[in-house]
Fold this protein.
Amino acid sequence: MARNALRSLARNPRFVFGATVLLTLVLVAAFAPWLAPHDPMAQSLLDQLLPPRWVKGGDPAFLLGTDTLGRDLLSRMIYGTRPALLVMVLGATLSGLAGVVLGMLAGFFGGWLDTLVSRTVDTFMAFPPMLLAIVLAAAMGPGLTTVVVSVVLIGWTRFCRVVRGEVLALREQEFVTSARTLGVSRARILFHELLPNLLPLVIVLLGLEMGRAIVVEAIMSFIGFSSSGLATWGSIIADSRSYINQAWWAMTYPIVAIIVAVLGLNALGDGLRQATDPVLQR
Amino acid sequence: MSAAALLRRLLLAIPTLFGVAVVVFVLLRVVPGDPIAMMVPGEATPEDVARLRASYGLDKSIVVQFGLYLGQLARGDFGVSISLKQEVLGLVLGRLPATLELAGVAITLALVCGFALALAAIFWRGSWIESAVDALNSVALAIPEFLWAMLLILAFAVLLPLFPISGRIDPMRATEFTTQFYLLESLARGEFALARELLGHLALPAASLALPLTAVIARVLKASLQEVMVQDYILLARVKGFSDLRILTREALPNALLPTITLTGVHFIFLVGGTVLVELIFAYPGIGNMLYGAASNRDLPLIQGVTLVFALLFILLNIAIELTYSLANPRLRR
């Protein structure tokens, strides 16, 4: 059974692509100090705005070139995987946890709890996501914590709505009603009967959310609400926008990295579901 | 939708607005940070600070502050901006037209391009054009608007300098507008050179908002057209000898519209929310940019004002969209 699942995973191109992207991200982030040729924050006024190495005037010591402060762009890209990964994992997991728990409770118990949760979801959906993030940044000040909290505040409603709807449909099904007649406790029904049936859905949502979290991190550091002392992909985009007419290529690295990461994470969630959902296997 | 149902929807908006006010109020007051300390000069005495704090009501407890704030809101008073020293409502309403014009141009662009793509893909089905449209859709959908904005800046402002990348109008131009709807006003006055310049400034921000929505519209419309095109009445139209173009636009299209309208409505709300970010990227002076300025200055009344206006806009749009459904779908018309 487990071996079958693994085999169908390995044969699923979307999963393989997504897993490769995620694994690369994790490895690069873990080994950043060994991979990066330079200190990402080290400035060198002699090496300002160097083009990539393969362009005329490029310096072999700076493979992807440098920014206006003479900082090595390759090293900044490599170190940028760390905040991206942190926000992605923490942001997606916490919003998933909050959304799934609240959605399950609201869908299963109904009544005033459902009304309360649904009204709160409505309220949060009445904010444009960026507006919520900016208000939060105004309140908490810039920093990685602010970024993670805004990912969670924006993201939990997506999990909550979908999970609540799914639980509403599932709880009327025979396996749940028969568990009830057998006198199985409500906690057991929630976690042993309902949760496994929700997992494929939650996995897809997690993949989407991780991709979104990376974009939110980039946006927040682009507008200066993430940590200013770190090399992040968003800060490279923000910096390069000011010297875009002298060195347009600097902006392409983080954009390409983010697009590949988002596509990879979405594919990972999709692939995992395709390979684990028995209905889709036929 | 009947008048009673409409009234009920409007009344249901009140708890949501109340919730929005609570969330923003709590977020802004509970966490540390002092807006007054930021606005007084260094030589201010503690008495000056206390007096200023009292004049904004910041010396009272949070519950009392919230009660006072709700009372003001109920009278239509949004307070006075701390950093700009003007009425919040006037400030926000002065900037709102810029945001509405941006959203309006973006949705028009998305509708025109989305319909053109879907119709082209169906008209030339099975050819390379259909595959090209499908590929374009997947790419447009996969990339979020933030990255589209950056890619558009790279492509059309740096590598191929066609459009300006910031602002709403050339700052050197000395044109007086009587309304804040610059584009509509210049069109109404027949000043097409001016309108073209405004559209040039709108091009990149509107395109980054419109691209993902274009893909959604093209995909859904194409799918519904595909379903309609295999039905018997289309075959009958063919037998009657109608031209392909006429069959597609006059016979098939009207029956394929409903799912597209529904989805466009939902996504239009996302688009309006997306203006906040796009305005920041392109330094476009709408309420999104105003919010950013307010947040940087910790201007609490202005932040609350922009947030409430946005929430109200969302709710009104939702109701307007529901009205459109009931007009477009005969089955909902009772």
In short: The two ends of chain B are 8 Å apart (CA to CA). The longest helix of chain B spans residues 192-229.
